[in-house]
Every structure is written in C-alpha cells, then in structure tokens.
Amino acid sequence: MTDNALTIALSKGRIFDETLPLLAAAGIVPLEEPGSSRKLIIGTNLPNVRLVIVRASDVPTYVQYGAADFGIAGKDVLIEHGGDGLYQPLDLKIAKCRMMVAVRKGFDYAAASQPGNRLRVATKYPDIAAEHFAGKGVHVDIIKLYGSMELAPLVGLSDAIVDLVSTGGTLKANNLEAVEHIVDISSRLVVNKAALKVKHALIQPIINAFAEAAGQS
Ligand code: PRT
Ligand code: MG
Questions:
Q1: Which of 77, 78, 165 to mutate to test the pocket of ligand 1 (most atoms within 8 A of CB)?
Q2: Are residues 105 and 53 in the same domain?
Q3: What are the beta bridge partners of residue 102?
C-alpha cells in the first residue's frame, strides 16, 4: 500500500469490541461489524484506512512483516511472539485478565509444586509456563494445546493448566481452581517499526488519540 494508506490488524471478539471506542476517538469508524460480516478486510469511514481481521495470536505477525501498519494484541500473545520488529508504545488497558495456574479442586498443588518435583502442565502459552515453573524450580512437562485448556486436568491429560482467567466462571463451571497468579494481562498497541518512520504523520495522531482515550496522556 502507499505511504498515505493505513492497515490496522485486529481480532474479532473482545479486542475488536473494546477497540471500537478507541478507533472512534481517532475518528475511525469501521463500515462493517466483523462478528456478522465474513469479510477479512473491512473498510472504514476514512478512505485511506482499512482493518484486517485476523486470529488474536496472528496480530503481531501481520504487524511484524508490515502487512499491517499497526494492531492491537494481548500481552499474552506478545510474550509468546517475542515482539521482534514491533514498537509497543501503549498499554491500552483493554481486554484485561490474569494469567493463572489452575488445578482440579482438591488437587494438592502445594505438595505437587515443591521444588524438584515434576508436574504436567497443559497450556497454549508454553514460554510463559516454562519460565514460571523454572523460576520456582519445578520441573514441568509442557503439553501444548490450542484451546479448552480447562478440560486437560479433568481427563488426566495434565496436573495443572496455565490459562487466562477473567471472571473465573470457566474455572468454576469445570470444578477447577486458580492456585497461582503469573502475570496481569491487558492489550497493547503494536506498531511496525518501519511504518512508524515512513507513515509517522498518519500514525502518531492515532497513537495520541488512543493514549488520550485510554486515559494515558
Ligand atoms: O478465540 P481464538 O482462538 O481466535 O483466539 P483467542 O482466544 O486468543 O482470542 P480472544 O478474542 O478470545 O482473546 C483475545 C485476547 O483477549 C487474549 O489474547 C487476551 O489477551 C484477552 N483476554 C481477556 C482473554 C480473556 N480475557 C479470557 N477470559 N482471552 C481469553 N479468555 C478465555 C480464557 O482463555 C478462558 O478460556 O476465557 C476463558 C476464561 O474466562 P472467564 O471469564 O470464565 O474467567
Ligand atoms: Mg478465544
């Protein structure tokens, strides 16, 4: 795309919903709602600004390679991605949750997680989980899953899970309990480093509007 056009990568669902007010503060209004539209490229009220709708965990990749100029991604996704090629100017304080260790109710986690012990941990976040347990001196076999981590301890696939918790409703409904807090998570603005230079005049006012709308200017 040309130097006066902008592509923004977003995932549908909670990040899209919570980004709408920020976009509006920057004068950007999507022409369609990705929940109902099957389109992957969505125009906006501004002829030079478009949105691309991608999986939450793919946002950093689109931005890293410059297929999108900027995007919004959870800190969970950014830690696992590593952040190469990304400028992260702003914590937008949206899509907040907590990265937690959880186990079946009644499981003696305190005993199982003594230093030197070995634990099977199912997660979509192998790097975050490995670092957490390394810090405690607990050996872990990490079992990588792509979703529904909550099932793993219930059917004997793992002793524990590392997953995101917001209301706690999913854990409760599945007879699990959170036993350790790893890190607080919220979503960040991620900008392609080259685009920030070349399209600075277009991107900086949007960053400023987002910062103000997110209460950080
Ligand atoms: O759904 P998909 O596989 O496409 O990708 P995704 O699940 O990564 O995307 P999405 O849209 O669900 O999440 C996007 C981002 O929102 C994540 O990267 C997080 O930064 C953030 N976020 C905030 C959450 C949650 N809250 C959250 N509660 N992401 C996921 N959850 C899940 C959690 O994994 C668990 O299964 O919701 C369930 C727990 O919720 P409670 O409310 O029952 O505790
Ligand atoms: Mg999801």
A1: 165
A2: no
A3: 161, 178
